[in-house]
Amino acid sequence: MINEINEKIIGIKDKAKLRSKEEYLNIIEKEAMGPKSKEVLKKIIEYEGWTSCGWTLFDVPPVIDRGEGAIIWDIDGNKYIDLMAGFGVESVGHANQIILDTIIEQFKRISHFAELPNELRAKLAEEVSKLAPGKKKVHFTITGSDAVENALKIARYYTSRPDILTFFGTYHGRSFGVASATSLANIKYQFWPLTARLGVIHVPYAYCYRCMFGKEYPDCNLFCAKFIEELFTSPAYTLRWSEKEINNIAAILTEPTQGAMGCVIPPKEWLSEIKKIAEEYDVLLIDDEVYGGWGRTGKWWACQHSNVNPDIMVTSKTIGSGIPFSLILTEEKIADDLPVNMIHSTMSGYHLGCAVALATIKIIRDNNLVERSAKLGEYFLKGLKDLQESHKLIGHVDGLGLWLRIELVKDRKTKEPAKEEAKNVQKRCMKSGVLFMVEGYYGNVIKIHPPLVIEKEQIDESLQTIDKELRYVEKNL
Question: Which residues span the domain enclosing 116?
Answer without folding.
Answer: 97-366
